[in-house]
Specification:
There is one protein chain. With 385 residues, the chain is of the alpha/beta class. It folds into 2 domains: 208 residues, 3-Layer(aba) Sandwich (Rossmann fold); 155 residues, Glycogen Phosphorylase B (Rossmann fold, 3-Layer(aba) Sandwich), CATH 3.40.50. It is 42% helix and 15% strand. It has 16 helices and 12 strands. The longest helix has 18 residues.
């Protein structure tokens, strides 16, 4: 029997292809399925060949069920009973392909479509969650319009989670949201990363000049400005900033204004495989984030054994970053300057931090381990079907 998986996502996959953020077997961990059908709730038309490795050896099929801004208005702010005509398209697709179950990346319209598939066709579904919507969306809403839009899907979110066979947060700070939403079955399953290209760091001798790398979207909550200010005080240090966003041009201007334009390399995008292969060639990884998360970029740095410097965020700390595997600092010029200076000047401490990170990360976040965990969940659902 052909084993088919239906994956429903809100993302525009063309953006991931453009940025090189492609992870082998991401949508088919453990090669459990023979066919992977990805349904996008938008009008994106990515190149299937560029995405094939995300399905491993399975046949990959791409489908669209556009939602758009008009659906928000037609459904009076995503009222579940008014969304059913739209979700009928997902039900018809599921009737045609007959997946053994459905996985949703995120808990929004995609998970509502999966809930309708289950209600009409009795096909089970799971939801993986990559943010804490209470904090990262509703908690960051600015102005009454953003506040209203962020709260509109609350009833839909709760209904989705209570109907799902399993909710799979990718890190622990999402757990309070799931408790408030009364999710019935919850299991933390960390992101599957690019195992084929993560190369362990074995040599902790400093380069000359010293190489610092920072990876992340460049916007207010992840603004690396204080890191730039710290690097300006360290004459023998180069910084590679990987990413783009609303602050990108401002950061370029800032680097020139600080007189370090020649020591800061801006890379808007690097293929994930290339980035993973290069991480071990840097001396330090430094980043700023106010999100309650352990990002894929930080996980990749930890998995290669790169010493990581990250700020203490406002609000509750991230449990995964509270085990001594990273150097936490105040989000200030002085905070980053002290941490970078100390690690640069203390060879033993720098190597100890990197090796501790590597050891802990391999036990908890190793890609083959996390991939096997997802495959185990999938197999369990298959056995029950």
């Amino acid at each position: 029997m052909t084993r088919r998986l239906l994956v429903i996502i809100n993302d525009r996959l063309s953006d991931l292809v453009r940025k090189g953020e492609i992870t082998p077997r991401y949508y088919n961990p453990g090669e459990v399925f023979d066919e992977v059908h990805i349904l996008m709730t938008n009008d994106d038309r990515p190149d299937p060949e560029a995405l094939q490795e995300t399905a491993g050896k399975a046949h990959l099929f791409l489908h669209n069920l556009p939602a758009g801004r008009s659906l928000f208005l037609k459904s009076l702010g995503w009222r579940p009973w008014l969304l059913r005509p739209w979700a009928n398209g997902a039900v018809r697709l599921a009737e045609q392909i007959r997946p053994v179950f459905v996985r949703c990346h995120g808990n929004h319209l995609n998970a509502f479509a999966a809930r309708e598939i289950k209600r009409r066709l009795n096909i089970p579904f799971v939801i993986s969650l990559h943010i804490n919507a209470d904090e990262d969306l509703r908690g960051r809403a600015s102005g009454w319009r953003d506040w209203l839009v962020s709260r509109a899907p609350l009833s839909m979110e709760r209904m989705n989670l209570r109907a799902a066979e399993l909710a799979m947060p990718v890190y622990k700070p999402i757990l309070p949201y799931l408790k408030r939403m009364q999710a019935l079955n919850v299991r933390v399953l960390y992101n599957v990363l690019n195992n084929d290209h993560l190369r362990p760091k074995t040599d902790y001798r400093l380069h000359h000049p010293i190489r610092v790398v920072s990876v992340g979207r460049q916007f207010r909550e992840k603004d690396p400005a204080h890191l730039l200010e710290a690097v300006a005080e360290l004459g023998n240090v180069t910084l590679t900033l990987v990413g783009s966003g609303p602050l990108h041009n401002q950061l370029r201007d800032m680097a020139r204004g600080l007189g370090i334009g020649h020591r800061v390399e801006f890379r808007t995008a690097i293929p994930n495989s290339t980035l993973c292969e290069s991480l071990a060639d840097y001396d330090l990884f430094a980043v700023h984030s106010e999100y309650a998360e352990i990002s894929k970029a930080v996980l990749e740095a930890l998995l290669v054994g790169l010493p990581v410097v990250i700020n203490r965020r406002r609000g509750q700390p991230v449990p995964e970053l509270d085990d001594g595997i990273v150097q936490t600092v105040d989000n200030s010029k002085l905070g980053y300057l002290k941490a970078l200076s100390n690690l640069i000047n203390d060879n033993l401490a720098r190597e100890a931090l990197g090796r501790a990170a590597f050891s802990e990360a391999q036990q908890r976040y190793a890609p083959l381990r996390t991939e096997a965990e997802y495959a185990k969940v999938y197999q369990c659902l298959l056995d029950q079907s």
